[in-house]
Amino acid sequence: MGGAFVYLTACSMRNHLKVRLRRLREPRYLLGSSAGLLYFGLMFRSNGPASRLFSTWRANGMMEIAAAAMLFIMAAWAWIRFRSGGPVLTFTRAEVAFLFPAPVRRRQLIHYKLLRSQASIVVSAAVMTIFVGPGSSAGAPVVFGGLWLALTTTGLHMMGVTLNRRNAADRGVGSFLRRWLPLALVVAATVIAGVTIAVDWPRLSAAATPREFAGELQRVTATGAAAVVLWPFRTVARAALARSGAELLAVLPSALILLALNVVWVVRSDTPFEEASADLAERLGHARKAQPAAALRRVGPRAAPFTLAPTGRIETAIFWKNLILAGWRSTIVMLMFAVVIGAVVAGGSGAAAPLQTAGIVCTTLATIVIFLGPTMIRNDLRTDLAYLAVLKTWPASGAAIVRGEILTPAVLLSLLSSALLACGAAFSGGAVLDFIHWSGASRVSFAVSAIVVASAILTAHLVVHNAVAVMFPAWVRIGARAAPGVEMMGQNMLVMAGAVIVLAAAVAPAALAAIVAVVVMHQFAGSVPLVVPAALFAGVLLLECLAAAGALGRVLDATDVNAMERLE
Q1: pTM: predicted TM-score of the whole model, two decimal places
Q2: How far is CA 137 from CA 67, 121, 202, in A?
Q3: From CA 365, how far away is CA 374, in angstroms rounded?
Q4: What confidence tens digit (pLDDT) does each residue in 340-392 have?
Q5: CA–CA separation, 465 vs 378, rounded Å?
Q6: Sequence ranges of the domains in the chain
């Protein structure tokens, strides 16, 4: 049976590669692939910015600490995020139809999924070796081997967690322990790591350079209980970061022990998964037939942000619906987490003024949210165009639908950027005010002005992205499913570049109006409060957004449901 599984996997990989290559005949995939490969080539070449940053972080120990921390968070979140429903292992409809009725034991099906996972792991390790390798063919096998060990161990552990969670859904003392003992261990490990860092925080905060900070953090986490808690994650991180035979051999025994333990754990599992996996495969198949671009996500009940009145504007109803889908509580938690992490990381960087450094970090994060947030939070037409047939049945104009769809991500991103900008103004103090050189500025005026301008720019950015989705749906990922392949990443980059150009053109009139107001007021009054040009800028830009939403609504009204191209 193992030979049959190998043959099936090899044929699937070959056919998948043929399909991907055949798609390059279409300009959107060819241009997307070219842009994606060019980006990787420029960023991850031997002397590129990503490689230089990787080498610097690896030299001072920051990369190992960051990788180990990320693995610890991933494992902890996997254990904490318990859901009794849903399938343990995902199979396609063809696999369910041919493998489940066959004389194949459950353990052999797990072997098959492990084998199929190796296909993507080997490809991922090879691509990462090309882009972050040492630049010599002699070191490539070492880099590939370390990355393969790390990716395989991580994937096996996640599969084991999933299998364990399904067993924990049963009743009984054993299931109770399987459900709550891992959570207790995760909490204990987190407390141990946190207490260790808190006790040594005076020495960590006294570090003068990032290298000293990383060295002290390595010393602290390499001794005592923290060393035991973090040993598996540091082992996997060291294997992934090995760049010489000596480094890989030093960590190889520990890495192989971890790999063997996870293999035994997963293979010896006898969790029943056939019924749930078959049910999911069937539902996904029907969903793709009914609406190929739609993504089927099984989510539990979520709390409503507010009570929806029986009557009112359609924008409010769409806003209410999208808030529930976005998980508004999770957004608030993410907002608080981003602010706290920014302050803690900045405070531990060894700067002379930790609060000012924290302010700069928060302001930087706010800038990232303003320009990259609209590409990440997609609870708008980029998701709901997959259900265009349903949208057409609503008793609402296209302009109202567009306004309601854009409202949710605009509010969520504005709240997140506002919190970060407020923290930036509070922490930075005179550093930011000296930088902008505005005589009438204060912390409050800077924060209010920045929040007003950022909210307007975010709204305009979202309008542009939704306009691209309506007018050029083939170039945008429609629906909530993950975007596959480097060609889709390249398409996103091209769309992002076009959106930035259009956004710059939209911002120009608003900026011109603000400049004219500043010149006129300064000529007659002698000074201009910072809030005045900011409010004028935001007002003009929001009026442009309203006009664009109306025009986009007319395009949406004229869009034929059958014209929505099927996205692969």
Answers
A1: 0.65
A2: 25, 20, 45
A3: 14
A4: 555 444 444 444 445 566 677 777 788 888 888 888 788 888 888 888 888 88
A5: 9
A6: 1-43, 59-278, 312-479+486-563
